[in-house]
Amino acid sequence: MQKLKVGIIGAGRGGSALLETLKDFDNIQVVGIADIERKAPGMKIAGQRGIRCFDSAEKLLRESQLDVVFEVTGDDGLVKELRSMIPESTTLVESRAVNIMLTIIRERKELLEIKEIKEQLSIILNSAQEGIQMVDRNGIIKYVNQGYTRITGIPAEQRIGTNVFDVSPDGALVEVLRTGKPCLGKRNRAVGSNAEVISNASPIVVNGKMTGAVVVFQDISEIIHLTEELRRSTSVINGLKDEIKKLSEGQGKFEDIVCQSQKMKNIINLAQKAAREDTTILITGESGTGKEIFANAIHAESPRNGKPFIKVNCAAIPENLLESELFGYEAGAFTGAGKLKLGKFELASGGTIFLDEIGDMSPVLQAKLLRVIQGQEIERIGGTHPIKIDVRIISATNRDLVDLIRRGRFREDLYFRLNVINIHIPPLRERKEDIPALTDLYINFFNRKFYKNVKGVTNKARDMLMSYNWPGNVRELANILERTILMADGEWITEELLIPYFEQFKGREKARGGILPLEEMEKRMIKKALEEYGTSVEGKRKASEALKISLATLYNKLKKYGIRI
Ligand SMILES: Nc1ncnc2c1ncn2[C@@H]1O[C@H](COP(=O)(O)OP(=O)(O)OP(=O)(O)O)[C@@H](O)[C@H]1O
């Protein structure tokens, strides 16, 4: 590109400004500058830029062939002189024209800067998540950003030019235009959309006069939604807290244990006394006899009531996990042990730990548990120091621990430690007097659960319940009643409704090789004899003869088995 060769005459303020301005033009080459004053500011600038300096206009003109000469001395005499000196091919620009040119260039430059700032501002305003809207003092909308359209769904071109007094008469902008004061934290619904917004609006004041107003608003629909979620979650958490509290307090009291039999009354009496002492208790009994409900009741009636009641089912947790469940672990104790985990013993601090199915605990853990009981302290896996604990231990099992000890499966020393007080709960078949009361309890319970109105069981159905062997104890009774109540159409549980379950259990008995407990066999024979001879006094006499027992023994057995006639 051929550059325009330029010379400047005059290195004062004008010359310096010209030098500054021309440096931005790539197609202009300032060849030289001339001034009689060697110390003129423009001479110094030119020297620094490698532009040649002359002490007279003639020398500059003589030295090089110039396309344009700028005269910025303001000396009219010099202009005339120059006209005669410069060749025709060179253009002379006089200082007045130079001033106009410089002003135009400066303004253009400022305009370009303003344009750049405007573009930057536009990017900033559009990248804001908030909606922004600006009006003049008459309420005419001059600007909305992209956030505005995103929140309201209204395109900018539809909004700009309208009057805010018409389109949003209740909004924050109108308030600012009316009062001249900021309007902060105004909550309303964005016009034209369902968005809930919160707005902050302020007047725009230029030279002490309000020229318009600007509003910045946030879409809080999401916040409202999240707050609602949070409220719901908090109520769930509170519910769970209540549940945990209930669990801690135990889910059963002695009043909840239904009992009519003298056997059970004696046991409850013993358990109540034991509850008040802070001793270790072992509860034994077949599955489903109520060991857990007793453990709960003991905790509830003990001085530890209100403190945690923590249950651990030793049979349900794999052996390798049970240790960490019971004693916890330190962070990083093993691969996967990210955070510190408290064990059940620590969680039960001050309260009771209920070790259910203790007979299924592995020998290794039995040894560890024994050390805990002896030392009254535990050590977390990966821990470096023992931690003192204050926990009452209630354990339970449906297994014969004495037999397990004989077979080397259970530590005798641990057995003695756990079995300071033994509470043995007899199977349901040994306390059949409890069956009617338990039946009533579950009828009430399941009536409420299933919105039923079962009044009770028929006599025949009651006989069935009384004569059954109940290998699954109270839990089995509860299960059968739950299912029959669910199936019952009428107000009474009949024999027909029960038969399927007893058939099922008979099948199970057959599967065991048709062997029945002797008592069950005896009961069935008595019932059969009565069906044969009838239930009158004469019928009973004949039945007793057929059974080869006295009439008095028959009456005793009828009572024992709860057979109603
Ligand atoms: N005397 C009772 N009064 C009221 N409910 C009882 C009674 N005995 C047992 N139950 C109820 O019967 C169900 C079984 O009892 P529980 O779970 O306490 O038995 P368990 O002996 O601990 O059984 P497992 O050995 O299988 O753990 C529970 O719902 C319990 O509330």
Describe the secondary-structure layout:
Blueprint: E1 4-9, H1 13-22, E2 28-34, H2 41-49, E3 52-54, H3 57-63, E4 68-71, H4 76-85, E5 91-93, H5 95-127, E6 131-136, E7 141-144, H6 146-152, H7 156-159, H8 164-167, H9 172-179, E8 183-189, E9 196-206, E10 209-219, H10 221-249, H11 262-276, E11 281-284, H12 291-300, E12 309-313, H13 319-327, E13 328-329, E14 341-342, H14 344-347, E15 352-356, H15 363-375, E16 377-378, E17 387-388, E18 392-397, H16 401-406, H17 412-418, E19 421-424, H18 434-450, E20 456-457, H19 459-467, H20 473-487, E21 492-493, H21 495-511, H22 518-533, H23 537-547, H24 551-560
Helix pairs in contact: 1-2, 1-5, 11-12, 18-20, 19-21, 22-23
Adenosine-5'-triphosphate binds next to helix 12 and helix 20.
Key features?
565 residues, alpha/beta, Beta-Lactamase, Rossmann fold, five-stranded parallel β-sheet, five-stranded antiparallel β-sheet, binds adenosine-5'-triphosphate, transcription regulation
Structure description:
- One of its GO terms (molecular function) is ATP binding.
- The chain is 50% helix and 17% strand.
- The strands form six sheets. Strands 3-2-1-4-5 form a five-stranded parallel β-sheet, with helices on both faces. Strands 7-6-10-9-8 form a five-stranded antiparallel β-sheet.
- 30% of the residues are buried.
- The protein has 24 helices and 21 strands.
- It is an alpha/beta fold and 565 residues long.
- Among the domains are: 102 residues, Rossmann fold (3-Layer(aba) Sandwich), CATH 3.40.50; 92 residues, Beta-Lactamase (2-Layer Sandwich); 165 residues, P-loop containing nucleotide triphosphate hydrolases (Rossmann fold, 3-Layer(aba) Sandwich).
- The mean pLDDT is 88.
- A hairpin with a 4-residue loop joins strand 6 and strand 7.
